[in-house]
């Protein structure tokens, strides 16, 4: 029996879970088709169809399915030319997966603070690092402090809202760096009218249980670069060189998505626009219901962005609200309402101790003050009202 703290698990006993999958379309019939025909494993028509529908939806030429979003990031880093011993600039306020993927590639993360308005990677910190802390030597861009080559930018679009890509792309061009987008939380969002995932050189999606759509577990790499797409497929299928003979020139990975998972993905893609519309409605309702509450700042949407509203998050300023975000988390939990803090910033993570960070103060504040609220696509109006009423009732209730 799943517990409500697991992503994708339904809370039992009348509770309200944070974010559960919306399995309401052709999932059963497509999966049955896989089982009936015996096409259950890592090749099959649903894998091709899922890749095709993702590429078409995002607007890239190619898509390569992978077993999860983390493996997509690992392969994307390798395909983009990140080598062992390199450094990659990555958001500090993120789920740990992209930082781990950098380490899988043998490279080192340099963490970049968030900006205070939309909580995304701050392009000014990236500029400061590249312009003031790096130098060219023999045509190679190096971090002056470590001597390591800087070889890629990895912005993470968090919580469904895009990073401000234009200044990052300008820096990437100026310094000759590829942009690898972690778009795992951002499928269906757009940046200046274009879908997130086509704004960099290569991008990764995730279909984990708590993402905007799910295949149980799964991932996807998208790119316009044919050589990179071919190499991504090659590396993710054990780098097999010959269609018949088992011969390999290099070490690859078993990172392929199964046809069964892709079948679920095809059914989920058919519902994506409806899911996003529902989640945007939920976000709008939260914004208006919580607008006048002192100390509560709902996450904002930039004029240049359309969020997919994946995980609706509020900032709780303890003095003005009367409780800290964690006190609110505990109090809501006692009423059966599941909320979630943001991730410990990577520059605070013991797993990545010793890594450099540019700034970090904004991420620290957001980590301590932010809370994600229940926002499943299927959240009913009365359930949402229960959440907003509970928050209103807890506001200003400081113990004497
Ligand atoms: C979910 C997530 C991932 C990893 O995806 P998995 O499919 O769980 O491996 C990577 N980056 C971010 C920011 C995520 O939220």
User: What would CATH call the class of the largest domain?
Assistant: Alpha Beta
- Secondary structural class: alpha/beta
Q: Please, what is the oligomeric state?
A: single chain
Mean pLDDT: 95
The ligands found in this model are: pyridoxal-5'-phosphate
Strand content: 15-25%
- Distance between the first and last residues' Cα: 41 Å
CATH fold-level assignment of the largest domain = Aspartate Aminotransferase, domain 2
Q: How many domains, in number, for the residues?
A: 2
Q: Please give the CATH architecture of the largest domain.
A: 3-Layer(aba) Sandwich
Overall 3D geometry? Answer: globular
Structure explained in plain terms:
- The two termini are 41 Å apart.
- The strands form five sheets. Strands 1-11-10-7 form a four-stranded mixed beta sheet, sandwiched between helices. A four-stranded parallel beta sheet has the order 6-2-3-16.
- The protein is an alpha/beta fold.
- Helix 2 runs parallel beside helix 8 and helix 5 packs parallel to helix 6.
- The longest helix is centred in the last third of the chain and has 32 residues.
- It folds into two domains: 243 residues, Type I PLP-dependent aspartate aminotransferase-like (Major domain) (Aspartate Aminotransferase, domain 2, 3-Layer(aba) Sandwich); 123 residues, Aspartate Aminotransferase, domain 1 (Alpha-Beta Complex).
- The chain is built from twelve helices and 17 strands.
- Bound molecules: pyridoxal-5'-phosphate.
- Pyridoxal-5'-phosphate binds next to helix 3 and helix 4.
Keywords for this entry:
single chain, 400 residues, alpha/beta, Aspartate Aminotransferase, domain 2, Aspartate Aminotransferase, domain 1, 2 domains, four-stranded mixed beta sheet, four-stranded parallel beta sheet, disordered N terminus, binds pyridoxal-5'-phosphate
